[in-house]
Amino acid sequence: MPKYDFDMITIGAGSGGVRASRVAGRFGARVAVVENSRTGGTCVMRGCVPKKLLVMASHFAEDFEDSRGFGWAPGAAAFDWPALIAGKDRELDRLEGVYHRILREADVHEIEGTGRLVDPHTVEVAGRTHTAGHILVSTGGWPTMPKIPGIEHVITSNEALDLPELPKRIVIVGGGYIAVEFAGIFNALGAEVHLIIRADNILRGFDDAVRNALRDEMTKRGIRIHAESRVGSIEKAGDTYSLHLQQAEMMETDLVMYATGRAPNTRGLGLDDVGVEVNAKGAIVVDEYSRSSVDNIFAVGDVTDRVNLTPVALAEGTAVANTLFGGTPTVVDYENIPSAVFSQPPVGTVGLTEDAARRRTDVDIYLSRFRPMKHTLSGRDELTLMKIIVDRKTDRVLGCHMVGPDAPEIVQGIAIALKCGATKAQFDATIGIHPTAAEEFVTMREKLPDHEAHAV
After folding, report:
1. Does residue 330 fall inside a structural domain?
2. CATH code of the domain containing 386
3. Is the same domain home to 194 and 60?
């Protein structure tokens, strides 16, 4: 008789949990995964997948308008928000079915309910206990909101994906990628959008040139960004909300959305009871192998608050399965992880920001701003930005950043070069594809004078 019911129990069927469970199952491990919501987790059900579908839908408004410059004469277009949400829901149902099939084909047992640790080898779900040699926590994160009067009236990104109708006016509080992405969606679909941020600029942590370029483009599109502002309280009167800003300003709107951050989803898991260490933010503290302070308990994804990106959770989940059941102890390399913001226009970035690079070494900066070819006929006032950061001593490319059409698709390819340690000379020796925006990354030859680079 086996000592435990399973070799591994995974709590949370998000991207990292499903990946670890599936890979472990294919290694022959007996695996169960516990989930109290929809299989697929934040990314597939409440985050990047449905959000990008909405981003795609919102682009058609500008596409119809831009087509006139290319000889088209489109008629009056009518947008149907409920039809979009219904289409999005059908796709999520399909994807959830795919996830169930993936787990089934890997012989992973699914347990529906909320998992709670009873001891280092036991998980309780709906009054029943299940034991395992190893336990993996992959419960993700959850939106957080400040404690201010009237906060009960607001929505988060979770609810924004399921609104019954498109608001005419919306205030979005927050300046991170979720906030700017939803600001672009609602603005393009015709809503009046106000973005309230505590800092002096959006996208804290991104390269300053990227932050400035995206802010300018969002402003051109009519999004009103209120920098260095805070909401003191929110009041509801009928179908209208009044926001009292701390600068004594008042603002009325039809909907208020908060996107001010996410916290690790560790509450109620019983971590304290079994001695799993968490930090001040509630994130599970793990080592390079994703092992917690309890030897047989592991954690991956946003619940560890390392690099909160879906592909990173997938890599971490694979690494845990390889370590425990594949005979190959594996650590994840967090250097040069590419990321994207599906704003309008979108952002793609990989490697160091200029500020971070300057803290390490002397750098050369290459910067290009140009009008996308499409807009030479559409007439749209939009600029693309591309930036390369190079180690002056070694010629190695330390960072590449882009704001403009197809930026995420382009930077994904650039990320391979940075992962391989490419130099600026190798970029220069690469033949570009003409005419494309991407070729600009291999044709930038003039570095900025130091005083100009610092100004940027």
Report:
1. no
2. 3.30.390.30
3. no
Same domain, 297 and 381: no
Per-residue model confidence (pLDDT) at position 450: 77
* 434 has catalytic annotation: yes
pLDDT at 451 over 60: no
CATH number of the CATH domain containing 196: 3.50.50.60
| Torsion, Cα of 304, 306, 309, 310 (10° steps) | -40
State the SS3 of the chain: CCCCCEEEEEECCCHHHHHHHHHHHHCCCCEEEEECCCCCHHHHHHCHHHHHHHHHHHHHHHHHHHHHHHCCCCCCCCCCHHHHHHHHHHHHHHHHHHHHHHHHHCCEEEEECCEEEEECCEEEECCEEEEEEEEEECCCEEECCCCCCCHHHCECHHHHCCCCCCCCEEEEECCCHHHHHHHHHHHHCCCEEEEECCCCCCCCCCCHHHHHHHHHHHHHCCCEEECCCCEEEEEEECCEEEEEECCCCEEEECCEEECCCEEECCCCCCHHHHCCCECCCCCECCCCCCECCCCCEEECHHHHCCCCCHHHHHHHHHHHHHHHHCCCCCCCCCCCCCEEECCCCCEEEEECCHHHHHHHCCEEEEEEEECCCCHHHHCCCCCEEEEEEEECCCCEEEEEEEECCCHHHHHHHHHHHHHCCCEHHHHHHCCCCCCCCHHHHHCCCCCCCHHHHHHC
If you average pLDDT over residues 106-122, what whole number do you get?
98
Does the pTM of the predicted model rise above 0.90?
Answer: yes
The pLDDT tens digits of the residues spanning 246-271 come to 877 899 999 999 999 999 999 999 99
Count of structural domains, the chain: 3
Domain that holds residue 58: 6-142+263-325
Q: Note whether 349 and 446 are same-domain residues.
A: yes
The single residue of 130, 244, 434, 451 carrying the catalytic annotation is 434
End residue of a domain, out of 206, 234, 260: 260
Mean pLDDT of the chain: 96
